[in-house]
Amino acid sequence: MKKHPVLDFFINIWLHYRLKIRNLTLVKKTIVELTLLESCLLGALVFCFAVQLYFSLFIHLKLALIKVEELPAQASKPLSVIICARNEAENLTQYLPAVLQQNYPDFEVIVVNDRSWDQTREVLKGFVAQYKNLKVVTVAEGEKFIAGKKFAVTMGIKAASNEWLVFTDADCVPASENWLSGMQQPENDETAIVLGYSPYIRKRGLLNSLIRFETFFTAVNYLAFAIQGMPYMGVGRNMAYKKSLFFKNKGFAAHMHIPSGDDDLFVNAHATRHNTEIRLNRLTHVWSAPNTSFSGYLRQKKRHFGAGKFYKAKHKFILSVQIIFQFLFYALFIVLMFFKPANYLAGGVFALSLIIRSFIYPRLLKRLNYPDLRWWFPILDILLFIFLVFNGILSIFVKKVKWK
Predict the structure, then answer these.
(1) Which regions form coiled coils (predicted)?
(2) Could you say which of 79, 140, 146, 285 would form a disulfide bridge with 175 (CB–CB 3.0 to 4.6 Å)?
């Protein structure tokens, strides 16, 4: 029988909409058959999905779409790089030269040797003889000194000759020789804080992938919220601010008793929509050596978790909403898998969430120097959720934390 193109066209349309009507009828029938408990659970899942969608589409997506800034054509003002080191002889030997050899006309590097007992002193002595722009500040062991990184940072800031301060760590290496050009003081004199990005170096193993993925989501959050005009934290491995801002607000006096928070608590207290900028250019990234043991990573995250308790109330509320509803989304989905026929609808909501997020976060992973993790996004997302729940519970029972 000879095919008729026009007739086939209308037959295909009819079959397509008939299938949609049948599927819609099946969905309606499924909804009618739900019990009150199943309806409540499914409604809660949809609400959690809506909250999740808000953060993905209206906060994080803007970070994926924003244009990456160009590096300034020339340097404008001198700056001081501050690095705190405690027993970092090996890392300083490996990474410090990349900082000292930056393509920037006028800068100094201040390394604070904080009560080290390894070969840090000898390593720094050798660098001082080689580089004229290196200054070493030594914190000696003694009762008159306050233990902790914040004291070491304060000593470094006091020793700085310049107004603009750039911070990194001893186990970090700039992505390029133009790192300082990107992190220099902006032309807008109102800007007092610049938030950079610091990815972890890729290594083999699931732990490394989890560490990098968690760092990625932390960065997406604080960078995206800064774009929205609500900066709430920064990472000390790559950030900058004015020396006058530090002393005007009495440094770390408000939270000197807290072991962590020399970076995020300071930014949380003093960053505003008007005085804060971010840097996304890959040449301004600073690579950091990740933990190689799960216990070491847990200790690091416990320090960060403890600092978060002292954020401003509005920041704690928003971050809590984000975490709680993400937790509830997964928890409700798991519970609904035990109910028929609600499990089909729950599976549809979960699949829709995964599809939408898979269009956003793999793009951000590529932008933030983790392109290899794009293909593992769904698995790592679930593993990160499990880890954050575990770390949150552990932090309730383990209170004591320290730097190094």
Answers:
(1) none
(2) 285
